[in-house]
Amino acid sequence: MNKVILIPSILILKLSALRKMLAGIFFLFFFLIPISNGFAQTWINIELEQTEYDDATDKTCLKETGEPLNGNYAIKFNGFQTNFEPFTDGFKNGEAKVYRHKKLAERGTYLNNLKEGVWFYYKEDGTIRKRVIYKKGKTEPFGDRRLRWERSSKK
């Protein structure tokens, strides 16, 4: 009789531990990860004229001090375009977004100043205008056309 009572109590303890674990996973994915992916990031607002590009080192630096950019910068161009770009020692590294007239126009990733992976270009209404795949700053040959050809050749 004790064994019958003991098994359900152990089962209840395991279920409550499972609930706590699931609550922790929920908290991680729906609260902490979004914060680390941009909601809590601070951006340093500067004008394009405050920066200079050093051709010898390929680094973007502050014009006033000559120091390479480090951190997340919101660089304003001509009052209608803002580039949100993360910099590490003067190199663009990480997810970048370009806004024109306060609407998302481009989104993708930089790796050592070069576009890498999938970049999305948006229309003014927010729909995707085109998708381009980059590898070390160059567009991949064929890109989406190759995928369409592979799909159509299987018919």
Automatic annotation (TrEMBL):
Gene3D superfamilies per record: Histone H3 K4-specific methyltransferase SET7/9 N-terminal domain
Domain of life: Bacteria
Official protein name in the record: MORN repeat variant
